[in-house]
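Cross-check.
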Amino acid sequence: QVQVVESGGGLVQPGGSLRLSCTISGIIFKIMAVGWYRQAPGKQRELIASFRVGNRIYYDHSVTGRFTVSRDDDEKTVFLQMNSLQPEDTAVYYCFAGENWGQGIQVTVAS
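Predicted model, tokenized:
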């Protein structure tokens, strides 16, 4: 059974940082496309950072230069380091691995 579990969300002030973690089990992690989507209130879910097949990294323009996606294949974990957070980054963040999804984790940026 595949499990995708996010952690590390919460409330942070504008300009602050958070690091999200996503632990994946039950699949062949190394060959999977993995990464992060987010969904802000009233908006569609959007892809913000991912490792594509072949390990190419993608970032949405809205997070380029502020967010960094990384992975630990031995631990089957994907990370999202988020710096210089702004209120518009407030959203539920979802980790994915192939066609499998986590339940999402709230990130709120507010003073």
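The CA atoms of residues 3 and 27 lie 9 Å apart. The chain has a mean pLDDT of 94. Passed to J.P. for a second look.
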